[in-house]
Amino acid sequence: MAAAKYHRSEDQFLCSICLDVFNDPVSTSCGHNFCKNCITEHWNTKVLCDACTGPKLKALKSCLDCLVSYCETHLEPHLTASRLKRHQLIDPVENLEDRMCTKHDKPLELFCKTDQTCVCTLCSVLDHKTHEFKAELEETEAEIQKMIQKRRLKIQEIKHSVDLSKDDADREMAEGVRVFTALKESVERGQAEFINMIDKKLKTTEKQAEAFIKELEQEICELMKRSTDVRQLSHSEDHLHLIQRVQSVNSAPPTKDWTEVNVCQPLYEETVRKAVAQLEETLSEEKKKLVQAELKRVQQYAVDVTLDPDTAHPNLILSEDGKQVHHGDVRKNLPDNPESFFPCVNVLGKQSFSSGRFYFEVQVKGKTCWDLGVVRESINSPSLNYGGKNSTPLIISPVSVK
């Protein structure tokens, strides 16, 4: 009795739709309990109960043995009766007869890969005995798992790309902040030096002008004093005194000839030009630092590339080590090679790359224009065409697309 009561109480915690312990349980207005997702999906279904004689209620499960869909009330025997518990219940579906083998009246549980059709267990051991078959759900599950795995790998790939992008962004931002900080400091320093130089020139001019003005004011005072003496003598009635002083007041006053004296005007425009030139020099130095830093960064991806003589145009002459090539005046008589470039003057590298970052250096001379790059492995060599005798295309490394 205790065991029976235990089982009955345990069944009270089972959802009659998924037949499992409640997950996020909810109650309906009629007092029944279900998992929230189960009852939501059930309400959205359009399959009706085949056992209802009155108004048709929505089916909760479909039985593959009975070929009948049941609502919650009519499904009760399948959950309690030991004989009916062995029946195979599935989520409600229409046209249950389509899921039964017409020959053996058994559920179609297997998939015959040879005939590409669903079969029952009897078909697999009788009519399809030598055929390759697999459980339909297992095959579907395997395909779904493959799709899941592919998408998980794609997520990892995307996340990795984002991480790489973030690293690049952080590096560039740090370098940019450093450069702009240095430029800002240089501009501020140049501005301070510029202002100081202008101020220094202005003060020199002002000092010179002040000296001239002081000297002129002294002469003015001396001249005004002499003017007063002359005026007094002109009104004097003492003829003896007039004769004694007239010679001294008529003599030239001790003054300077100011005709050619001018205040030197400094060239401020030259100061501006020098300040701008200094700023340009600082910018040039920062650009060199950036180029050197970028070159150092990409050189970690350096690869060794050797030129492929089979792809070279007949006018191209390659060194024995495949590291040098130059244009010859005489075309070589070579056997037809579908990989060689003609009439285009090109040559490919032997190495091919499928993914990643790669760096290689090429020294060129003797022409006004060169083309350097990568091509697909499937390139049709003769189809390339470049114009101009001063243009020598050189396509180094094919990209392997697999």
Automatic annotation (TrEMBL):
**Keywords for this protein:** Coiled coil, Metal-binding, Zinc, Zinc-finger
**SUPFAM superfamilies recorded for this chain?**
B-box zinc-binding domain, Concanavalin A-like lectins/glucanases, RING/U-box
Species whose genome carries this gene = Labrus bergylta (ballan wrasse)
Which parts of the sequence belong to the B box-type domain?
96-136
Pfam families referenced in this protein's UniProt entry, alphabetically: PRY (PF13765), TRIM_CC (PF25600), zf-B_box (PF00643), zf-RING_UBOX (PF13445)
The protein's superkingdom reads Eukaryota
Q: Where is the B30.2/SPRY domain?
A: 285-402
State the PROSITE patterns in the record.
Answer: B302_SPRY, ZF_BBOX, ZF_RING_1, ZF_RING_2
The record, for SMART domains, names: BBOX, PRY, RING
Q: What is this protein called?
A: Uncharacterized protein
The UniProt entry's coiled-coil ranges are: 130-157, 269-296
Keyword Zinc attached? yes
Q: Name one GO molecular function term.
A: zinc ion binding
Q: Name one GO cellular component term.
A: cytoplasm
